[in-house]
Protein: Cytochrome c oxidase subunit 2
Organism: Teichococcus rhizosphaerae
Amino acid sequence: MRRSIVLRFAGLSATLGVAAISLLQGAPALAQGSDGAASGAAGAPMVGAPVPWGLDLQQAGGPIKESIHDFNQLVLWIIVAITIFVGALLAYVIWRFRAEANPVPSRTSHHTMLEVAWTVVPVLILLVIAIPSFRLIYYQDRAQEADLTINVTGRQWYWHYAYPDQGNFAFDSYPVQEADLKPGQLRNLEVDEPLVVPVGKNIRILTTGQDVIHSFFVPSLGVQKYTIPGRTLETWMRADRTGTFYGQCNQICGTNHWLMPIVVKAVPQAEFDAWVEGARQRFAAEGGGQPAAMAKAADEGAVLAELRR
């Protein structure tokens, strides 16, 4: 009997430990918004990338990720409250109904109000989670008043980007091999040609796949969308800070799935315009422009996505 009580208290301690860890993990996220705003105000370029031994979500680089942070905090505190309640209830039951205090245990097997409560309360909790969850899903789904459109095509194992609103030039983005990394570059995350976007602009992303299913995923911008062959899907993103935001394909797409990085570089509008002028000439000279058939397909994809809005 004593061993049983000890084991129960050990389980309670583990439960409270999980709650404490959750609180500690949630604390950095609460400070991320102010830290990010401070760095943005100071004008320092942001780097959205994983960090060694990171426990929390990546710092938000745009409004979608900030909404994800808010939803994450809501769910975290709900879980913490549930964990504390269940742990406290378990401790009370262990103490109140121990063998010494209840030599003849009750044989009660039903309690109508209690059974109604433990059915209704979880339903209400799920509703509290579901409503903001669906709002976030629809918020991520469609661009409102997009400033420009970028076509993203997933290929084994690199990315193809097209800018139909800027002259319809296109280029491929290949990963930088480890032997070719320069000082300061991140292993397995660098590319030879980043996706360049202007700061503070709503970017409509139209995704498709050429061979198998890939996934366009940039955590710090809160964007994730599958690239499916034969289908055009829409999402959007916005970078509110200058900087470099790293991502990867997170859909198992073959042998080199592990090395299919994404780099989004957010720059001021004037710098973006200058980059566009240079990119038109450079990629045209390199033969990186879209063939007419691909350009037409991209335009049709944009029309279909607009009709779905």
